[in-house]
């Protein structure tokens, strides 16, 4: 159901919301594009949604129009009056929290599972994603629909053997399905950033048994921290890793980027067994 609100351009002008680069502000104003992003998680009618960085509220409006109950965290106090105007017509379905998303204990905001949908500020986007991917499993979130710079989106969905494959690919894929839902050109944003963007969609799947996220996290950090080096060198500092590699039959002269997600899971499993 459409909300009766003025065009976003007028809202931005009325509240003097000149974009601040330091806050990663690149706004989306095209309501068709915003509605398309709000459709990525599926049917949101009556669903709880967590939005980081609503800014002037373009995506927030699209989510509300899709029927969602939105809780949004925004750091820039200048945006709050514009967001209050949306809340005033949203009939109790929009809660805005002023604050830094890196400091918010989001899972306590929702009694059940929530979809996370956000056009993320580029400076904290990857850190937030890594936090969400390291949640207790099954996670408190039902799905992630997130705008990233295209280069980061490519890393999230990359397969082993490709240049983009790395720690982020493994963390995003070992117990989730990660896809690029849509590509978004730079010109869709105001102001237009220098790079292209993409919306990624991540849904949780069952976690492999016997592997703790902390083990996989440390393993991939060591392996990809020195991605040009052979694994027998990069994993030297991780107790038990060389032996685990031998046990699962991974040749120590290989480089991290050649090991599949399943290979890292096997290795983490073995490492965990030997350290227990
Ligand atoms: N959602 C709006 C849109 O799509 O047009 C704005 C997206 S803009 C890329 C990122 C937003 O995140 C900005 O409104 C910015 O003020 C906000 N932001 C930046 N850092 C933040 C943080 N640490 N916590 C919460 N919001 C933040």
Could you give the order of strands across the largest sheet?
4-3-2-5-6-9-7
Taking all Cα atoms into account, the compactness measure Rg is 21 Å
Strand content: 15-25%
Can you identify the CATH superfamily of the largest domain? Vaccinia Virus protein VP39
Give the second-level CATH assignment, the architecture of the largest domain.
3-Layer(aba) Sandwich
Q: Could you say how many structural domains there are in total?
A: 2
Note the gap between the termini. 55 Å
**N-to-C SSE string, H for helix and E for strand:** HEHEHEHEEHEHHEEEHHHH
CATH class category name of the largest domain = Alpha Beta
Q: Which term fits the overall shape? A: elongated
What is the percent of helical residues?
25-40%
Helix and strand content put the structural class at alpha/beta
Task: Point out poorly predicted stretches.
Answer: none
Number of helices: 11
Bound molecules: S-adenosylmethionine
Task: Provide the CATH topology of the largest domain.
Answer: Rossmann fold
Largest sheet: 7 strands, mixed
Question: What is the mean pLDDT?
Answer: 96
- The number of strands is 9
Task: Please outline the helices and strands.
Elements: H1 8-14, E1 27-28, H2 31-39, E2 48-52, H3 58-65, E3 69-74, H4 80-89, E4 94-98, E5 114-119, H5 122-133, E6 141-149, H6 150-157, H7 167-173, E7 176-184, E8 189-190, E9 197-204, H8 213-225, H9 231-234, H10 241-248, H11 261-275
Parallel strand pairs: 2-3, 2-5, 3-4, 5-6
Antiparallel strand pairs: 1-8, 6-9, 7-9
Helix pairs in contact: 2-3, 8-11, 10-11
Bound molecules: S-adenosylmethionine.
S-adenosylmethionine binds near residues 25, 53, 54, 76 and 124.
């Amino acid at each position: 159901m459409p909300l009766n609100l003025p065009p976003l351009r007028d809202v931005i002008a009325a509240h003097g919301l000149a974009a601040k680069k330091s806050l990663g502000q690149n706004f989306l104003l095209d309501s068709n594009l915003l509605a398309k992003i709000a459709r990525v998680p599926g049917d949101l009618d009556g669903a709880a949604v967590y939005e980081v960085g609503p800014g002037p509220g373009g995506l927030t409006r699209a989510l509300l129009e899709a029927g969602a109950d939105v809780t949004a965290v925004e750091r820039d106090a200048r945006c709050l009056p514009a967001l209050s105007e949306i809340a005033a017509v949203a009939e109790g379905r929009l809660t805005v929290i002023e604050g830094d998303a890196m400091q918010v204990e989001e899972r306590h905001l929702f009694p059940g599972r929530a979809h996370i949908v956000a056009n993320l500020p580029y400076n904290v986007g990857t850190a937030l994603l890594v936090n969400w991917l390291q949640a207790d499993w099954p996670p408190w979130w039902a799905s992630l629909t997130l705008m990233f710079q295209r280069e980061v989106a490519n890393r999230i969905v990359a397969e082993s053997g490709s240049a983009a494959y790395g720690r982020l690919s493994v963390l995003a894929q070992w117990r989730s399905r990660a896809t690029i839902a849509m590509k978004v050109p730079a010109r869709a944003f105001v102001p237009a950033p220098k790079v292209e963007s993409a919306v990624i969609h991540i849904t949780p799947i069952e976690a492999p048994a016997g592997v703790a996220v902390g083990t996989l996290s440390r393993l991939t950090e060591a392996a990809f921290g020195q991605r040009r080096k052979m694994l027998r060198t990069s994993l030297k500092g991780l107790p038990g890793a060389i032996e685990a590699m031998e046990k699962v039959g991974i040749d120590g002269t290989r480089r991290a980027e050649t090991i599949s997600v399943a290979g890292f899971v096997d290795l983490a499993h073995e490492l965990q067994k030997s350290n227990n």
